[in-house]
Amino acid sequence: MIIVKTAEEIELMRESALIVSKTLGMLAKEVKPGVTTLQLDALAETFIRDHGGVPGFLGLYDFPNSLCMSPNAQVVHGIPNEKPLVEGDIISIDCGVLKNEFYGDHAYTFEVGEVDPETKKLLDVTKESLYVGIRQFKKGNRVGDVGYAIQKFTEDHGYGVVRELVGHGLGRKMHEDPEMPNYGKRGRGKKFVEGMVVAIEPMTNLGTRRIKQLKDGWTILTADAKPSAHFEHNVALVDGKPELLSTFQYVYEALGIQSDVEEEFRQKKLQL
What are phi and psi of 50, to 5 degrees? Predict the structure, then answer.
């Protein structure tokens, strides 16, 4: 059952989402060769608590850390460890925050130093596919419309779209209805309703879409050991249109990236 949020609840969710956004922006300055994912995890937990939130992943389903840290061929749910990042790595950082009884949850895949062109293109296409999907989150559409748009865009570039892991509704629980696959058929699935909030999160592999899981019970890897990218935003349906609650602008500010792609999904200007 889709749990509709009031306008007031959506604004509370925006607060939670923006703490995640600011956390990712802080981490953007720290992701570099030689740093460990465990060090980044500790920085994130302190930052989240200092900003009035609680790490949303820590202890959730018994996950042991505040961040899911998934380098290179890891798709999602990587556990932070003491292995240093090296030049040319990519690292997907998925972060959750609980504040005012509502969750924020989104992700960004970072480059560690200079990344090879093939991998860099994977990141660019995956991030663009996120916005391709968000554009279909609107009045009159269904879950399959978002999934179809993401799938077509990424597969047209020759990439594998992960099937077993999907986006989801978001609210007082980290995972609510509906599931939001990154594949599907137009006109299929649950219909979008005013006031719903979802996490849209394409997970795209350079090679096969197939995955496997490590014995730790968490870490998901590509079956062919090729890189995977993951980008995620939180979006509400407001006045029949997608309203972005999260932002990558803090990341862009830290990395010196110029982008206005998010502006079409905001009814009021974001105050950084």
Answer: -65, -25
